[in-house]
Amino acid sequence: MPLLKWQTPKQPMMLKPADIDDERRVFHQAVSTAVSASVGTDQTGKPLNMLDLYPGGFAYHLFYATDYCSNSQQQTCAAASAGLYDPENSTTANQNITDAPGVVQSQGSDLAQKTTGNASILVDSVSFNTTAGLTTVENSAIDSIHEQDITLPNGATYSPQVGFLALGGLDGERKYQRGNGMIIPNHLAGKDIIPSASTSLHYGSANLGPEGSLVWGGYDQSRIIGSVGQFDITKSDSKIEPNLLDIQIGTEKGGSPFPQDSYVGLLALNETFGYHQPTEINAVLPYLYMSKDTCTNIARLLPVNFEPGIGLYMWNVNDPQYKRITTSPTYLSFIFPAQSTTNHSTSTADTAANNISPTNITIKVPFSLLDLTLEAPIVPTPRQYFPCYPFNALDQSGRYFLGRAFLQSTFLAMNFNQSTFFLAQAPGPEPDAPNIQSILPDQATLTSSPAGKFAQSWSAHWTPLPARPAASPPKAKANDALSGGAIAGISVGVVVAALACAAAAIFWVLRKRKAKKAEDEGEKVKQETDYAKGPNGLHEKDTESGWTAETEGAPVAETDGSPIAEAAGHQYGSMNARFEMAGGNQEGTARWIAELPDDKTLPEMPASRSGNDKPLPEMPAGRSREDLRQGLYF
């Protein structure tokens, strides 16, 4: 079937969402709407199989073949409700284009979840409904999956239910041994049907809306809100991999259901990467695949319980906080730089401070979008879950993966002509009317809607909580106020009183110690000396007279020539004399003997004394000058 042309060439085309009735709504992740495509051609030239597909993956489509259910280990095969592909009966299929086996994953999705299976590579026609009518791309690159199992942490396996319609690729065609497979936007741009090899995507929510938006060759401006980030697509493997800087919790309007109004630093940064976390955006995956530490940082604030067998957190729907969180304007936000790291001009200091700078892009995912329903075949009965999946990348790269749960509230566009992609906030359940704009081959910017559109698109679906009253300090009465001087005076008084108490305590302790010592010695000899003692005894030599002093059995040290003794504050002359230690101690008290040399006499008592002088104490009764030679008494 030839490609459909329309009157105005090079206009972007928006795919219409899949028309899925309740009986066919089988998507266990319950996170997104799907698109419909017809694959293959029957004997009459009409489309052969109708498939409901998730937009996701690069370069080649992933379709489940008709033998998929017979090869599945599941008792029931829900994939049949979404539609299966029958290449054996398609007149436009080429199954001999290569001898290489196919794959059952895309964009490295098998690094996030353990996936096994087998597939065949072929090409066939793919048609889809757009705003321009029915569009067909012949010889589209397809991996037809015959068997696929995903292994849960507890060892149980399940078979996925929905295939994927590829978003595009850096190469214009997928090259095989015996021909090439077409990539939709690249092929349409090459035929001058759309303005460029570009794709834009907003998943929306299957539960709340809006329905998904997928545009070839352009974008819907109503799905872009606020600032737009521009990044490089990795040319080696066509990955959409921006650097994640932080994860935070905030509230768009009203009060927060949490103890704090906001939380920052929930992203557990890997020291290997510094102040950012490589994170791949991959629509083939359903959850938020992040490290255990990051998931724990978030989950500890939520009424959830982790089930290790499944690897997911289950909401405690009976906890009052569950409704408060999932119905209020509270969100989990993901912070990215405004452009690829190689082009990012933010200074290291700005990056280190919470990893936040004014040029960053914030994607807010309301908790109402993170209240998802898990169904069979993963669980026997439906359960509400929070889609943070603690994991380590199987290639030990340390990267994160953000899947369709993230894309519910995220706008993503790719310009494959420039090897760039765009990231921005998407609206909530009630966006403005579609406003389709072209993406030109050399276009580096996109036009967005005002930032206020985010809250507006959610206003009818949120229940704001009362704002937490701001704490205010008590107001002092005018006559109760103290001046600065009074406060300073009180402070000084307190300090002085404390010092006085400390001094009194020290004095009392010292006095008690001194009294105890006097009691033990039996007598108190009141004497004060101003000669200096060395570490082991008396000084060896007087610096003025040359006289020496010796101690028995102790080393000697020099004196400084200062007066020997004082009484009641008066000097009684210099007695440069020889001192000898008595042979022994009496009652534990060392007595010192003072001898005068032959040419020395005792000093005369001054003839007159001032009124302030105190008289010398009288010689105790029964004492003689000989006694004075045995010990100095004052």
Could you please describe the fold and organization of this structure?
With 634 residues, the chain is α+β, with helices and mostly antiparallel strands. It has 2 domains: 13-461, Cathepsin D, subunit A, domain 1 (Beta Barrel), CATH 2.40.70; 526-582 and 591-603 and 613-634, no CATH class. A hairpin with an 8-residue loop joins strand 23 (372-374) and strand 24. It is elongated and about 120 Å long.
Structure characteristics:
single chain, 634 residues, Cathepsin D, subunit A, domain 1, 14% helix
What number of domains? 2
Percent range of helical residues: 10-25%
The counted number of beta strands is 34
Which spans have pLDDT < 50 for at least 5 consecutive residues? 1-9, 20-32, 342-357, 476-484, 523-603, 605-617, 623-634
> Helix/strand-derived class?
alpha+beta
What top-tier CATH class of the largest domain fits best?
A: Mainly Beta
What is the gyration radius calculated from CA atoms? 46 Å
CATH architecture name of the largest domain: Beta Barrel
